[in-house]
Amino acid sequence: MNCLVDGTIPPSSGLSSSSALVCCAGLVTLTVLGMNLSKVELAEICAKSERYIGTEGGGMDQSISFLAEEGTAKLIEFSPLRATDVKLPSGAVFVIANSCVEMNKAATSHFNIRVMECRLAAKLLAKYKSLQWDKVLRLEEVQTNLGVSLEEMLLIIEDALHPEPYSPEEVCRCLGISLQELQTKILSPNTQDVLVFKLYQRAKHVYSEAARVLQFKKICEEAPDNMVQLLGELMNQSHESCRDMYECSCPELDQLVDICRTFGAQGSRLTGAGWGGCTVSLVPADKLPSFLANVQEAYYQSGDRCLAPEKQSLFATKPGGGALVFLEA
């Protein structure tokens, strides 16, 4: 195969440029080999293949790359993978703004540390509730096995976990395992030397964020008059939780979020893994021109922000279709 690769997604910006490349490579390879797989199968294979670089990523980026449809957002759910249409409000647009802080997930351990903190929190919660904790990997599994709501899981956290950080030794005591078992059987290679795990904060973020996703969908379905305001409030709560509980923001993202809200965004939050990359803001359509001009001036024209073309730094967007193969007739 001889391949020429081209793209317009800014790299390391939290806009899934690496997943886009993997999905493109997977689809092209299938096409060249004359093979057929469903979009769901292809998304799952692409998600699995990305973990070979050592990043313990999920499957959301790959799923939307294949399952996206023009004109509608999607609620992505796993086990089994499925996508449900979510109709977005007509009077507002989503604006992407790049903080210009690059985040290379494969070259840093922040991302994997969060995955491991969530894995340890899931195991401690499972043990607290007398579940088979050694088989549990994800917080979602604890909720599913208990058959309770996200709101109930938030109450269980208050009883089962303490806000003070856990040391590896305390985690071992809670689970009744040795330090060697923790390092070799649970932690990933680049998280074995971590000295503190914030299990309470990470679990609280994940369950509350999952609840916000479902609230967002519900508001879109019910379409009240103040819909854009309500959706914006959820986005703002999300950023606060990312910043304070999951600690995956950075000063530039926080500054950019504040600027976006100041100039008319009803809601603004980081998008992607965090620690850099982009914000996404919900902006009333009639405020869009002034919003773009003001944010451009306040963030990008102060200091040496971005050498990238302006259009890559700040742009309005709407849901597009998923990956396609164009064949010459």
Overall description:
This protein is of the alpha+beta class. It has three domains: 1-86, Ribosomal Protein S5, domain 2 (2-Layer Sandwich); 88-102 and 248-321, Alpha-Beta Plaits (2-Layer Sandwich), CATH 3.30.70; 109-204, de novo design (two linked rop proteins) (Up-down Bundle), CATH 1.20.1440.340. Helices cover 49% and strands 10% of the residues. The protein contains 13 helices and six strands. The protein has helices spanning 17-33, 39-50, 60-67, 110-128, 139-146, 150-160, 168-175, 179-186, 199-222, 227-244, 251-262, 288-300, 310-313, and strands spanning 73-77, 82-86, 92-98, 267-270, 278-284, 314-317. The strands form two sheets. Strands 4-5-3-6 form a four-stranded antiparallel sheet. Strands 1-2 form a two-stranded antiparallel ribbon. A hairpin with a 4-residue loop joins strand 1 (73-77) and strand 2 (82-86). Helix 1 packs across helix 2 (39-50), helix 4 (110-128) packs parallel to helix 5 and helix 6 packs antiparallel against helix 9 (199-222). The longest helix is centred in the middle third of the chain and has 24 residues, at 199-222. It is globular, with a radius of gyration of 21 Å. The two termini are 20 Å apart.
